[in-house]
Amino acid sequence: MSQTIGIIGAGLVGLATAHKLAKHAPSVRVVVFEKESAPGQHQSTHNSGVLHAGLYYKPGSAKARLAVSGLRQMLDFCQTNAVPYEQCGKLVLAVDAAELALLPGLFERGTANGLRGLRLLGPDEIREREPHARGVAAILVPEEGIVDYAKAVEVLTAQLRQSGHRVLTGWRVNRLERHGQQWIVHSTSGDEACDFIVNTAGLYCDRVSQMAGEPRDTRIIPFRGEYYQLRADRQHLVRHLIYPVPNPKFPFLGVHFTRLIHGGIEAGPNAVLAFAREGYRKSQVNVYDLADTLGFAGFWRFARRHSGMCWQELRQSFSSHRFATALQRLVPEIQPEDLKPGGAGVRAQAMRPDGSLVEDFQFIKKPGALHVLNAPSPAATASLAIADEILARIRAGFLAI
Fold first, then answer.
1. pTM for this model (two decimals)
2. CB 47 within 8 Å of CB 380
3. CB under 8 Å to 371, separation ≥6 — which residues?
4. Lower CB count within 10 Å: N or C terminus of the chain?
5. CA gap 97, 82 in Å, rounded
6. Quick one: which of 323, 190, 338, 168 has its CA closest to 264?
7. Do residues 314 and 226 lie in contact, with contact meaning Cβ atoms separated by under 8 Å?
8. Whole-number Å distance between alpha carbons of 376 and 73
9. Which of 253, 252, 260 is nearest to 357 (CA)?
């Protein structure tokens, strides 16, 4: 008798996991539960569309391993399935002596992570690639690129359905019950029995794990990232991807410039607390989500520890002038009037009770279940490699593949 694996959440990580199961465990029936009317409606497509090469992540970490492997798998997937992508390269730009001092460490980290073709550039070489950018030095990351993640979601979903597996939309999971060796997945559209469940619920992964009887020692805190787009007549100011050197004192990267796969230049994101887990606009408030955040001691410890950054990001959120000022560190010609409002995403960031962020991907395996409890960026790029990691963790004692 074949076994059924239920995957909760049809973002890229959930779909990629189902894709790998369909490929490597053909006797297993896969059912993916998605609360929205279509897959991939949140973190998978509310992002900048970047193929992250893995420059920043600590060597040996899951993020480092899976970003590099995942990038190459995603490129193969795009080539095979006609998903639009481009490896346009990225500049990580040092604009002063303090940032210059950090470049060798970044370069060593990227090399240790297995990135190919990294180069250190001087001011003249920077101007050759990005004539309007200004910096004292930069790292060129040629493997970095851009991709149509929405198309990748569409292709994965279609392939799963064509191979006889189910992707159920409009199925909001609201309860999990363990009966012997099986789970009963209760949803707004019906109930399903599963022999194993994989929690890839993203913004709601902590709540889904709690439904399965796990304590919420860490909690998802939603941070909104807001973007501007450059006006059409100013898009010549940016050719590729221009990123800052990350400040080791701050938990987020800072604003940067990104080419979009279907045209245009995006600038951002900042990082501000979202008042709803799907709070893509400032006006969106979910009382339950907000109370969940404000009632978590870890959030207040984080806010106290990073009060200056939080205040700066909040002011920047309400001022295109401040946003432009931040962007001018990379491209001095940018003016506030060059910016028009763009989209926004919400980052599902796991936070510990002491206020520290969970920096790496986090997987928790329990009897009959595996929970992915932290998978923010670069999870979209790494999704196929994350799926391999999930399969490796559930093979023992469940799948003979």
1. 0.96
2. yes
3. 199, 205, 208, 209, 212, 214, 363, 364, 365
4. N
5. 43
6. 338
7. no
8. 18
9. 252
If phi > 0 it is left, if psi is from -120 to 50 it is alpha, else beta; for residue 218 that is beta
Residues 266 and 192: their CA atoms lie apart, in Å, by: 42
Residue matched to tokens 């709540």: 207
Nearest residue to 344 (alpha-carbon basis) of 274, 297, 293: 274
Element (H, E) at 321: helix 320-328
**Tens-digit pLDDT profile for residues 354-373:** 999 999 999 999 999 999 99
Supply the DSSP symbol for 336: G
Distance from C-alpha of 74 to C-alpha of 17, rounded to nearest angstrom: 13
What sign has the CA pseudo-torsion 76, 80, 84, 87? positive
Cα dist from 392 to 119, 352, 377, 388, whole Å? 34, 26, 21, 6
Both tokens of 290, joined, read 């907000």
Between CA 383 and CA 66 the distance in angstroms is: 8
- Residue for token pair 């006889």: 164
55: closest CA among 102, 11, 20? 102
Q: Give the pLDDT confidence of 218-254 residue by residue, as tens digits.
A: 999 999 999 999 999 999 999 999 999 998 888 888 9
Give the Cα separation of 110 and 126 in Å (integer). 19
Angle between helices 307-317 and 297-305 (to 10 degrees): 90
Sequence-ordered list of residues with C-beta below 8 angstroms from that of 315, at least 6 positions apart, any chain: 322
